[in-house]
Amino acid sequence: MRIEFIFRIIGMLVMGIGGGWFGAYFSSLSNEPPLAQVVAFAMVGSLAGLILTPYLTTRPMRAIRQNLTQVSAKTLFAGTLGLVISLVVSALLAFPLSLLPEPFGQVLPVLLALAMCYLGISIFVSRQGDILQMWSNFSQRGGESDSPADDRQRVILMDTSVIIDGRVADIARTGFLPGELLIPRFVLNELQYIADSGDNLRRQRGRRGLEVLTQLQKDNSISVRISDIDVEGTNAVDDKLIILARQMRAPVLTNDYNLNRVAEIQGVMILNINELANAVKAVYLPGESLTLRVIQEGREHGQGIGYLDDGTMVVVQDGNRFIGDEVSTMVTKVLQTAAGRMIFAKLEDD
Predict the structure, then answer these.
(1) Which of 64, 95, 115 is the last residue before a domain boundary?
(2) What's the chain look like in SS3?
(3) Per-residue pLDDT at 268 exceeds 70
């Protein structure tokens, strides 16, 4: 049974009893039969209670709860701290103000409390970063916190593309992603939508993402959390991620090129797995030797294409004659492109 229905029944009974009491009261002031007025007022009160109770109880609470879930923990903590301090200051100032003559002694303490609460919440929320940094520094001086603990408290937002990619599971196991991997509900919904797509390729990508997410959750060494936190005002997942990252002051883990550029423009920190993969690839200089298997012809005449173990493409001059064979080559040029690193080589026998 839904809680709203229970409140409707309670409101109907309370308003019905109240309406019957008013009916009995008005019947005593008139000469009409009391029973008719009691029944009429009770029916009107019951109907009003049945209709209006949710708008006075459950729905305002639901709206408040929904707004609170969209506020980051840092903002909520800063606002609560500002409210408590404002109430304490208001209580200290209320006594001397209450000694003023009427009506100032009764009105000013209330107005002061409201003004102090508003100022305290707004100031603490606007300066939440500085306040939390001061708290962190104070804790570190007291020996209650160190940098590994701070790393564990770090939150990293995950994009849909990086979950589908799958490499995040291996990277997280190595410990290069300290902190908690946070997956908002709207990212999970997009992943499920892709997994239910009618296109076979998209469906396979979505299911692979769900499998990767299951692996992350089963690994006790990786901290993963799915949150219901949401962002209103936009339906685009990328826009929601950027807004949420700015609110939480958290980086976004992704390999989406467009999201990477838009986030950098808006001052959001991005952890790009593709950039990490390119950074850890082995560095080869012109003149070094490579042994690889030529697997296909290149775009230009006579070229052969091979790949290193890390996926780096190697273009071998006059290598189309050795497709399917392992050859010894010498690096002639290394080219860094937006898609990654490309190596040009020639046969050592030449």
Answers:
(1) 64
(2) CCHHHHHHHHHHHHHHHHHHHHHHHHHHHCCCCHHHHHHHHHHHHHHHHHHHHHHHCHHHHHHHHHHHHCCCHHHHHHHHHHHHHHHHHHHHHHHHHHCCCCCHHHHHHHHHHHHHHHHHHHHHHHCHHHHHHHHHHHHHHCCCCCHHHHHHCCEEEECHHHHHHCHHHHHHHHCCCCCEEEEEHHHHHHHHHHHCCCCHHHHHHHHHHHHHHHHHHHCCCCCEEEECCCCCCCCCHHHHHHHHHHHHCCCEEECCHHHHHHHHHCCCCEEEHHHHHHHCCCCCCCCCEEEEEEEEECCCCCCEEEECCCCCEEEEECCHHHECCEEEEEEEEEEEECCEEEEEEEECCC
(3) yes
